[in-house]
Amino acid sequence: QVQLVESGGGLVQAGGSLRLSCVASGIIFALSNVDWYRQAPGKQRELVASIAVGGSTNYVDSVKGRFTISRDAAKNTVTLQMNGLKPEDTGAYYCHVRHPWTKQDYWGQGTQVAVSS
Q1: DSSP conformational letter for 64
Q2: Neighbours of 1 (CB within 10 A)
Q3: Start-to-end CA span in the chain (Å)
């Protein structure tokens, strides 16, 4: 059974930093593309950052230069380092993975990020 568990959210002032982690069980992150999504109150969930199997990364324009996604294969963990946080970064952040063989989507429970101005 695949489980994703996020941690690291919290309340921070604008300009601050947070480090989100997503730990997986039942799936090997090194063999999967892994994404971080976020959902602000009243808005649709949006893709924030992705890391491919080969290590290439992609970011939504609004976080480029501030957020960094990385993977630790030994710990089966994907991390989202968020620097220079802005109030518009506020929302629930979710880890997502699509199983490389079954193509089933898995989501974590989410971790809340709140950035005060």
Answers
A1: T
A2: 6
A3: 40
DSSP code string of 92-111: EEEEEEE-TTT--EEE---E
Q: Tell me the H-state helices in the chain.
A: none
21: tokens are 């982690």
Residue 77: its pLDDT value, please?
97
What distance in Å separates the CA atoms of residue 48 and residue 93, rounded to the nearest whole number?
Answer: 9
Residue 26 contacts residue 3 (beta carbons within 8 Å)? yes
Residue range 22-80, pLDDT digits in tens: 999 998 888 899 999 999 989 999 999 999 999 999 999 999 999 999 999 999 999 99
Q: How many residues comprise the chain? A: 117
Assign 21 a pLDDT band (cuts: 50, 70, 90): very high
Q: Which of 59, 49, 51 is nearest to 32 (CA)?
A: 51
> How much is the pLDDT for 30?
87
Residue with tokens 């996604």: 69
Question: Are 59 and 41 contacting, i.e. CB atoms less than 8 angstroms apart?
Answer: no
**Burial of 97: CB neighbours in 10 Å, binned 0-12, 13-18, 19+:** buried
